[in-house]
């Protein structure tokens, strides 16, 4: 079950009714049952995995709490990290490694004795694995006590709004909320619904519509001109932002209606003026997780190397982030590029600050526009390696953009709908970035403006959103 | 809480009213649209189809047979009702609608209709859901959940807003030429045939394909199942099932899938599965030759 399905639109109101019909003391149980129903609805066998991770995490965190010596605590922490990482490695990396071995052996006319195995990747495995690891480390660091109720731990790991695509929440934020007696508060309904409405707009009007153009071009790179590929490559980061950003907003809105506060995942990333700022605004929950559990300990370990220690920590963090996204060479290159961009910025930071101060560039319009544009271009370049699937395709993309310009392939209707969606999205982000108190729509004090904006967005979703996926995939003909 | 519920109800009421009014306005223009993509559908469901030769299929056929070329030579009025990505679920209610008022002499049906499982494009039928019994029957059987969604006009006309008012039209009695200068084909495609589509053939697809051919032949229509020349290998299962249906109904297969005249001339193709305008002229002449040999004209 996904947020954009009709099933979810029936499931969620039913959950709300059940949730509020349940005595406060047992509301966590209602949410747990709903979460497993939601997750098992995708593939029943996946529920075994969340259950396994729950049991392991619960047991190990309890043992960490009870152990008196730090060495023992550390052993239990590592045991749990190993146990919860094992399925992630198996499901995510077994097939590519296995196929890599097959291909390598075949190059030398050798045959592997075992057959090729294929299976479905359990949806959301990366997200709940990271949440389980974070919780374990937090207990080890004594930032929180191990939860005594296994049901609450199970709910934290499988909580339905977050289980598929995050945000990657922290136990320190979620577990106290699950235990605090979730009360009916109508004040949460309106902001929750607004977040959901905007999330659906981003996902269905912007992301899914833009995907039609991007897919049409990227699925036939060899047949498209460099200019068409450049346009698709420019649109792709916007598509990803609207896709994951929209999905996150729906998750946050759903949680809010249930009375739970969840961290935001995106903060107007395309108005970032440097890569460092960009990464504080893009997939915030993942970056915060990587910063707290990977980058900071690494940077601390490498502190004797000064600025080069930071560079090393950045490179390792982003290479691992790339591999987390997927087990392909493209994701590895993506991670290396992010590491390089951030490292260069870190190394040039002092000089840049001096220049900004000397020429008073901080509020300079041209400098700001240039910085925003340059940051976007760097990110878009790295995203080519993710979207193009293989390295050969990525290189072909750059070759075509640089040396084979030509007429731009445009489907009028898809382009027009995409343009409407992207314009509304970027204008809203622009207003939030520079004029947060002005021209409010969803939060306007004028009821006509407020209701008018809800209606406009809801009707836009209904009339031009991609509601059944792929209805115009064939448009290039 | 009470105030919140009232606001939600007001919003739902306004939303439904706005959607209803917008749907009424768009529905008015939709039927009259001159858009290249909507024209064939509107004509097929208009109840005014009186042509002697009708052509049903998806893009491989909408760009392959030229009606006015056939009419000029045979004197028989012809309309190419094929439309991009439309599956047998689209063709069948259209055939039933046409047969209510008129029996054509010849129907050419693309064999791809057996191989293309494309429920997604049933959305093209939604504007006719309330007014056409055959469309309603099919949608209710195949997509029962759509009944609830179709209560909203925005869903019925989803993503059709711009097309309705886009009058750019290269449509000639249903034929949409693909211009030879826009070729999107790699010469190497002609050396080794691509893997080709291997869609699973569902019982529904097979059933509607059979019903289509049976319905037409039972009315005395001469049905030709046209196998396109494409630069891809053919799914054996699909060929066997399609042949079995044709053999039991008295229809006739006209097979260009191994026709070396086409398969050796890249200049006749737009891409791997579509002929360009030059290819369409050759194909139209070849099909007319077959009709002549069969005594159709």
Model description:
The complex is a heterodimer of chains A (477) and B (297). Chain A has 17 helices and no strands. Chain A is mainly α. Chain A is globular and about 65 Å long. By secondary structure, chain B is α/β, with parallel strands linked by helices. Chain B has one domain (2-293): 3-Layer(aba) Sandwich (Rossmann fold). In chain B, 47% of the residues lie in helices and 9% in strands. Chain B contains 13 helices and 7 strands. Chain B has helices at 2-31, 36-44, 59-62, 67-74, 88-101, 133-142, 146-149, 153-156, 161-165, 203-218, 236-249, 260-263, 277-293, and strands spanning 53-56, 78-80, 106-110, 222-227, 252-255, 269-271, 274-275. Chain B starts with a helix and ends with a helix. Classes of the chains: A mainly alpha (477), B alpha/beta (297). The A-B interface holds A 6, 184, 186, 189-190, 220, 222-223, 412-413, 416-417, 451, 454-455, 458-459, 462-475, 477 and B 1, 4, 7, 10-11, 14-15, 18-19, 22, 59, 63, 84-85, 120-121, 123, 145, 148-149, 152, 154-155, 157-159, 161-163, 166, 168, 178, 184, 186, 271, 274.
**Into which percent range does the helicity of residues of chain B fall?**
40-55%
> What fraction of the residues of chain B are assigned to beta strands by DSSP?
5-15%
Major pleated sheet of chain A: none
CATH topology of chain B: Rossmann fold
The shape of chain B is globular
Key attributes of the depicted protein:
heterodimer; A: 477 residues; mainly alpha; 2 domains; 17 helices; B: 297 residues; alpha/beta; Rossmann fold; five-stranded parallel beta sheet; two-stranded antiparallel ribbon; 47% helix
């Amino acid at each position: 079950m996904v947020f954009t399905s009709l099933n979810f639109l029936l499931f969620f109101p039913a959950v709300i009714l059940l949730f509020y019909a349940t005595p406060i003391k047992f509301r966590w149980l209602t949410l747990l049952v709903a979460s497993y129903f939601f997750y098992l609805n995708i593939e029943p066998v996946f529920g075994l995995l969340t259950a396994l991770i729950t049991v392991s995490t619960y047991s190990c965190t309890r043992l960490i709490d009870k152990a008196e010596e730090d060495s023992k605590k550390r052993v239990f922490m590592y045991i749990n990290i190993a146990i919860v990482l094992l399925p992630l490695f198996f499901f995510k990396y077994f097939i590519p490694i296995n196929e890599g071995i097959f291909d390598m052996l075949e190059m030398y006319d050798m045959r592997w004795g075992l057959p090729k195995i294929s299976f479905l990747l359990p949806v959301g495995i990366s997200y709940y694995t990271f949440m389980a690891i974070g919780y374990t480390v937090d207990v080890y660091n004594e930032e929180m006590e191990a939860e005594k109720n296994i049901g609450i731990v199970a709910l934290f790991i499988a909580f339905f709004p977050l289980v598929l695509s995050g945000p990657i929440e922290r136990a320190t934020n979620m577990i106290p909320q699950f235990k605090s007696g979730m009360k009916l508060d109508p004040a949460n309904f309106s902001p929750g619904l607004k977040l959901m409405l905007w999330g659906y707009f981003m996902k269905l009007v912007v992301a899914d519509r833009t995907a039609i153009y991007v897919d049409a071009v990227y699925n036939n790179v060899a047949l498209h001109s460099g200019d068409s590929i450049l346009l698709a490559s420019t649109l792709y980061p916007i598509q990803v932002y609207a896709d994951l950003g929209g999905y996150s907003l729906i998750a946050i809105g759903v949680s809010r209606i249930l009375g739970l506060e969840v961290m935001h995942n995106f903060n107007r990333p395309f108005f970032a003026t440097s890569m460092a700022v960009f990464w504080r605004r893009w997939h915030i929950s993942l970056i915060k997780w990587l910063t707290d559990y990977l980058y900071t300990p690494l940077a601390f370990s490498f502190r004797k190397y000064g600025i080069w220690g930071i560079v090393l920590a950045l490179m390792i963090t982003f290479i691992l982030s790339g591999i987390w996204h997927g087990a392909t060479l493209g994701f590895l290159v993506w991670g290396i590029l992010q590491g390089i961009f951030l490292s260069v910025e870190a190394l040039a930071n002092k000089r840049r600050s001096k220049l900004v101060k000397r020429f008073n560039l901080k509020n300079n319009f041209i400098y700001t526009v240039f910085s925003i544009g340059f940051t976007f271009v760097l990110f878009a370049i790295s995203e080519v390696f993710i979207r193009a699937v293989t390295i050969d395709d990525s290189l072909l993309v750059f070759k075509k953009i640089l040396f084979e310009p030509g007429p731009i392939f445009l489907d009028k209707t898809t382009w027009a709908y995409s343009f409407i969606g992207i314009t509304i999205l970027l204008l809203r982000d622009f207003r939030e970035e520079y004029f947060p108190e002005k021209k409010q729509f969803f939060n306007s004090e004028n009821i006509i403006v407020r209701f008018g904006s809800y209606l406009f967005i809801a009707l836009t979703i209904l009339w031009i959103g991609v509601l059944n996926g792929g209805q115009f995939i064939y448009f290039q003909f | 809480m009470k105030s919140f519920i009232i606001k939600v109800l007001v919003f739902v009421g306004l939303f439904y009213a706005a959607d209803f009014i917008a749907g009424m306005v768009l529905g008015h223009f939709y039927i009259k649209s001159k858009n290249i993509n909507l024209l064939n559908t509107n004509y097929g469901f208009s109840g005014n189809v009186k042509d002697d030769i009708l052509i049903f299929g998806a893009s491989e056929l909408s760009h392959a047979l030229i009606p006015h070329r056939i009419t000029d030579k045979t004197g028989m009025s012809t309309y190419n009702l094929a439309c991009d990505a439309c599956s047998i679920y689209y063709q069948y209610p259209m055939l039933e609608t046409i047969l209510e008022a008129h029996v054509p002499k010849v129907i050419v049906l693309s064999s791809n209709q057996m191989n293309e499982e494309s429920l997604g494009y049933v959305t093209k039928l939604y504007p006719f859901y309330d007014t056409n019994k055959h469309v309603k029957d099919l949608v209710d059987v195949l997509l029962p959940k759509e009944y609830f969604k179709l209560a909203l006009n925005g869903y019925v006309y989803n993503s059709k807003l711009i097309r309705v008012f886009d009058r750019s039209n290269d449509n000639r009695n249903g034929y949409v030429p693909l211009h030879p200068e826009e070729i999107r084909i790699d010469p190497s495609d002609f050396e080794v045939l691509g893997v080709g589509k291997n869609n699973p053939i569902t019982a529904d697809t097979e059933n509607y394909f059979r019903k289509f051919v049976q319905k037409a032949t039972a009315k005395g229509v001469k049905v030709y199942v046209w196998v396109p020349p494409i630069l891809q290998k053919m799914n054996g299962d699909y060929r066997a099932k399609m042949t079995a249906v044709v053999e039991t109904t008295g229809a006739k297969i006209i097979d260009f899938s191994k026709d070396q005249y086409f398969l050796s001339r890249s200049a006749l193709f737009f891409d791997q599965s579509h002929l360009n305008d030059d290819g369409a002229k050759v194909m139209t002449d070849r099909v007319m030759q077959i009709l002549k040999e069969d005594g159709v004209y």
